[in-house]
């Protein structure tokens, strides 16, 4: 059962998810999104040795959506971590994050949410990416994530031990999903927006649902992030605590936005490694 805060209906004209050619392309694609090329030499690559890893199709309410999932080989009965991408979709970096989690013993799954409106990984520039991402409805994302949990459970994963983590666009979604799904055990939001303008696509932001967020959420943010004022995240955390929720904010004073993105110039190794260690501790502390 979900909270009602994000259950708004889809706007009219949502494209059907029956475009087999596009879906097949998503399943077969690999590498990094075109809009982030060239990638940095410091990019981390995690192999799939000892893992079951690859693309699957998740049954969302409006049709099948592609997702990448990874878990320890022969051991799908593992706690579930939903991995929510940046605006660049489920490209190689997000797949690598899923493999890293699988190496730690988790069943990690990342849904390609934007595919209803196009393939962000093949968009040639940021304008093309934003044109696709800007059409993706929050309520649809919540349903995709619910469907991913159901898929994981169907494969034998321990869906009652559920966590979520997301980056940038996915960081915002992490806070929202923590309000949406009361069964969530823990969340880790990496530099996601918590306030902003609202419309039919984004009717609420994390700050608007602070009182509904009961799962413990760890926020990891950069002090030099030019687009996300730390004060706004501090207010969200304070309002959550005032409403009986649990949250913690870690700010890396010298880190910019996207400091975990090892394939981009924004990567800051010390902050990224510390954040990853804190993610692991947060999940363990809260039973995931």
Secondary structure elements and pairings:
Layout: H1 20-28, E1 51-60, E2 63-72, E3 79-84, H2 92-103, E4 107-111, H3 126-133, H4 138-154, E5 158-167, H5 169-180, E6 186-190, E7 217-222, H6 230-242, E8 247-252, H7 269-285
Parallel strand pairs: 3-4, 3-5, 5-6, 6-7, 7-8
Antiparallel strand pairs: 1-2, 2-4
Helix pairs in contact: 4-5
Structure explained in plain terms:
By secondary structure, the protein is an alpha/beta fold. The chain has seven helices and eight strands, in the order αβββαβααβαββαβα. The two termini are 20 Å apart. It has an eight-stranded mixed sheet, with helices on both faces. It is globular, with a radius of gyration of 17 Å. The chain has one domain: 3-Layer(aba) Sandwich (Rossmann fold), CATH 3.40.50. Helix 4 crosses helix 5 (169-180).
Short synopsis of the structure:
With 288 residues, the protein is an alpha/beta fold. It has 7 helices and 8 strands, in the order H-E-E-E-H-E-H-H-E-H-E-E-H-E-H. Helix 2 (92-103) links the parallel strand 3 and strand 4 (107-111).
Within the CATH hierarchy, at the fold level, what is the topology? Rossmann fold
Just name the CATH architecture. 3-Layer(aba) Sandwich
- The structural domain count equals 1
Percentage of β-strand residues? 15-25%
Q: Taking strands numbered 1, 2, ... along the chain, how are they ordered across the largest sheet?
A: 1-2-4-3-5-6-7-8
Number of beta-strand segments: 8
Q: What is the CATH superfamily classification?
A: Alpha/Beta hydrolase fold, catalytic domain
Structural class: alpha/beta
Task: Estimate percent helicity.
Answer: 25-40%
Terminal CA distance reads 20 Å
Which shape, going by the Cα principal axes?
globular
How many DSSP helices? Answer: 7
Overall mean pLDDT stands at: 91
């Amino acid at each position: 059962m979900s909270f009602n805060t994000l259950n708004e209906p889809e706007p009219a004209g949502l494209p059907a998810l029956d475009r087999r050619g596009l879906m097949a392309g998503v399943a077969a694609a690999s590498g990094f999104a075109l809009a982030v090329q060239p990638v940095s030499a410091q990019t981390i690559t995690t192999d799939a040795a000892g893992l079951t890893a690859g693309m699957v199709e998740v049954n969302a309410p409006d049709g099948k959506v592609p997702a990448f999932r990874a878990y320890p080989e022969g051991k799908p009965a593992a706690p579930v971590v939903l991995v929510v991408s940046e605006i660049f979709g489920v490209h190689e970096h997000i797949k690598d994050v899923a493999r890293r989690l699988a190496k730690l013993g988790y069943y990690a799954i990342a849904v390609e949410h934007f595919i209803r409106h196009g393939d962000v990984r093949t968009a040639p520039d940021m304008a093309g990416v934003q044109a696709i991402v800007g059409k993706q409805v929050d309520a649809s994302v919540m349903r995709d994530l619910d469907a991913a949990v159901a898929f994981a459970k169907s494969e034998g994963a321990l869906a009652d031990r559920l966590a979520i983590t997301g980056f940038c666009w996915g960081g915002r979604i992490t806070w929202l999903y923590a309000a949406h799904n009361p069964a969530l055990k823990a969340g880790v939001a990496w530099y996601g927006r918590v306030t902003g303008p609202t419309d039919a696509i984004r009717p609420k932001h994390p700050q608007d649902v602070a009182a509904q967020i009961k799962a413990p959420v760890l926020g990891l943010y950069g002090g030099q992030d030019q687009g996300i004022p730390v004060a706004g995240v501090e207010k969200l955390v304070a309002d959550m605590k005032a409403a009986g929720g649990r949250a913690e904010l870690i700010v890396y004073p010298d880190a910019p936005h996207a400091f975990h993105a090892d394939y981009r110039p924004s990567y800051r190794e010390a902050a990224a490694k510390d954040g990853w260690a804190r993610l692991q501790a947060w999940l363990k502390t809260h039973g995931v």
